[in-house]
Structure formats: C-alpha cells, structure tokens
Hints:
The protein has helices at residues 11-23, 34-43, 60-67, 84-92, 105-135, 146-158, 175-184, 203-211, 228-231, 247-259, 285-290, 296-302, 318-334, 342-349, 356-370, 403-417, 422-429, 433-443, 446-452; strands spanning 3-7, 27-31, 48-52, 54-55, 58-59, 74-79, 97-100, 137-138, 141-142, 165-168, 193-197, 212-213, 225-226, 236-240, 261-263, 270-272, 276-281, 305-308, 339-340, 374-375. With 461 residues, the chain is α/β, with parallel strands linked by helices. Strands 2-1-3-6-7 form a 5-stranded parallel beta sheet, with helices on both faces.
Amino acid sequence: MPHALLIDDDPGSLRALAEWVEQEGFQVQTAETLEQARAALLSHEPDLAIIDLYLPDGTGLELLDDLKESPHIQVLVVTGQGSINSAVEAMRGGAVDYLTKPIEPPRLRRILMGVQKSLELRREIDALRGELRSLGRFGEILGGSQSMQTIYDQIERVAPTDTTVLITGETGTGKEVAARTIHRLSLRASKAFLPINCGAMPPNLIESEIFGHERGSFTGAEGRRQGIFERADGGTLFLDEITEMPLELQVKLLRVLETGEVTRIGGSASQKVDVRVISATNRAPNEAVASGKLREDLLYRLNVFPLELPPLRNRGEDVRLLAQGFLDELNRRSGTSKRMTDPAYDRLRHHLWPGNVRELKNVVERAFIMALEEIGPDDVPIGPRRHGAPEGENLTFEVGTSLEQSEKALIIATLKHHEGNKREAAKVLGVSLKTLYNRLKDYGNEEEEEAARPDSARAGS
C-alpha cells in the first residue's frame, strides 16, 4: 500500500484530507508543523507528501528543499486561492501538482490516481531493471549487451512521457517489441496498444483504417467505422513502416498530431482523440525525406525522441541469449525439453543475420522442428551453399556507406540468395511482400525490375 505524509496546521482540514486520501488506497501519516514533518520523514519515507505552503514554523517550500535528497517522493502543495504564484514556485521546486483551498475531492481524486499510476510505473521499471541485471531481459526485450542497455535507459526516460518516438533500425531488429515496451511502461499501459503496418495495406484501405469513414463515403462503405486513432483513444498507436504511407495521407496524419482531432472520410465533424504516437522505419529518415518518401514537417513532428535499435550482428553474445529465450518458449509451448549444443550456438554466433532478431527466431523455430531432442549444428538452417558460394554468405560495407545503399545491397543479395523467391526474401528481411516490391521498384534498373515481377511470372519461382 502506498504511503502518504499530510502536512497542514488546521486540524479539521487535516482530518478531512486524511479521510479522502485513505479512501483512495493510501496509508496516511499526518503532521501539523515543519518540525513534526521532518521527524516523520526520518521515521518513514513516504511515496507522497501533501504540504500546506503556510505553516506555523515556516513554509512548505523549505520542506521541498529537504525532499530534493529523495527525488522519488512525489509532492503536492496546498495553497489558498490568492497564492497561485507560490504554488507555481513550488512546482518549479519539484512539486508535481498543487491544490487550492477549499480542496475539491474530485480534483484530489484525479491527482491521486495519477500519483498511483506513477508509483506503479516506478515499481515496474525497478523490477525490469533488476530483471535486466540478473537475466539480460527488459520486459519482452532480450539482451544484455552494452548497446541494448543504452536502449533500455532511453526507454526508461521516454516511456512515462507522452512524447512521440521514432524507432529506427534494420528490418527485424524488434521495433514493435520496443514500442510495446514503451507503452507498457507508460501511464497509458491500461489502455489499448494498436499497431498498423503502413506498408502492408493499399492506400484506400489504410486511409479508412487510420481515420475511419462515414456510411456511403465510398463504394463498399456500408456503415460508419471508427479509425484506429479513435479506437486507440487514451492509449498508444504504433505506425510501422511510416515511410511507406502515401504522401497525401501524411498531410492528414500531421494535422491529427498537431490538433488532436481526427475527421472520418466523408465526415465534416472532427473527433477529439488522446493518442500517443510511436512510429518506426527501417529507412534512414533524412534520406527518406530527400527521396520524397517522407514529409520533412512530419519527420520533425514524429522524431521528437529518436530511438535507434542496433543490428543483431553488433550485439555479441545476445545471439545466444535470444536463441535460448526462443528455445525456452518453444519448449514451454510444446511441453518438451530440447536443448541446443555449443557447436550449434557457435554456428548461430558466426552468422551475420541480415534479417536480425526476426530471422534468428525463425531459424530457432525451424531447428526446433527438425531436431528430435538435441539441436546440433546440422539442424541449424543457415548459410547453405548456393552456386559455389562459401557457407554463410556475407556482405561487407565500407565505413561511410549510407543506410539506403547498404539496405539496397542487402535486399538484392538476400533475394539472390533465395533464388528470386521474394516471399522467402521478405520473410527473412522481416518486411511485407508489398514493401519489398516497393523497394525494388524504387531501385529501378532492369535487373531489379525483373526481380520485382510477381513470382508467378518468373520461370522456376
């Protein structure tokens, strides 16, 4: 049960405040002077302190200075109607909010609910931090490498805010998992987390899916439909592959982000929405702007807090940790106890993983199916010999190669590695088939246009 320290020199007001706070699930301790409050703080450090600004032996601002050594204690200040400036000064000194006398129970209740959510969030983050130290795990994310610990620190800082986040990184690095973790650690965690892949839907459908539509607004619109912004109200919306969103829809998205209002297709009235937006792309954002794939003003609005996920090849022993985690989950679901040998782990560790974590997960699942009890190196389906190429084909890039150029080379090499099978290449790369076609179309030379044709039109595909 959270603990609250209430400080007020009016015994009647203090009793009423204590009753209200206890009703909201807090254990309460009271004090009528600064001296009593300081003694109470020495005996038990509270989660919340509610302080009257004017006390017989000083002011609540003096106690705020004492509390700076305990930054996790959340402070509310209480003041009379004519002392709002003092309340503002108190908030600059570290108070999270203020109440004016006479205190209105509904406002107090809303503030206390927010404090409780913040306390729950802090406990969740503390638990995750301990979990990371002992197991190399942060919620759904696995990894103990230094690069991932940096990501965890960034997630901790941004999660409790409503700031928009742009997650970048190669295909398959776990951008949606990172977005879910941010949502889980936010004050919106009890509300919906709704993902949408902007590269996997036709333009007419994605507009309806995001913004909703009114009955009769287009052929087939037989009834009113709420868009994903309305369905995510109070929660988090994850826009994956944001650079694949048509430019005309990017304009509408920008307007929603700036106004907090959404208008359905065919409608005239706007709807207020309270949604946090997290977006993601495997393109370099600035290069997407330069190539006309992403509006620059939208990028500024989405990229308030950038989060760049590292590729698996740069995460060292995380490969083994991830593989073991995937294997444990498969064993749990199947009621088995299969294990992977050290030579099999070595085979995984020396692969460059162009499809990153998603490719590793697929490989472990296939190895799990192929093996009877023990997974050996021959059960690990990576690096087959093709057309005389050495086992475990690799790509190398010079320092200074742009993400756009390296992505292009990776896509073409992966497609060739899978003998033109675009479905298999898209699966390994961790993108939708439509996104792969769009990328190949962007590249434009004859070889890539040939590769972009439907599989049914290619002999032997």
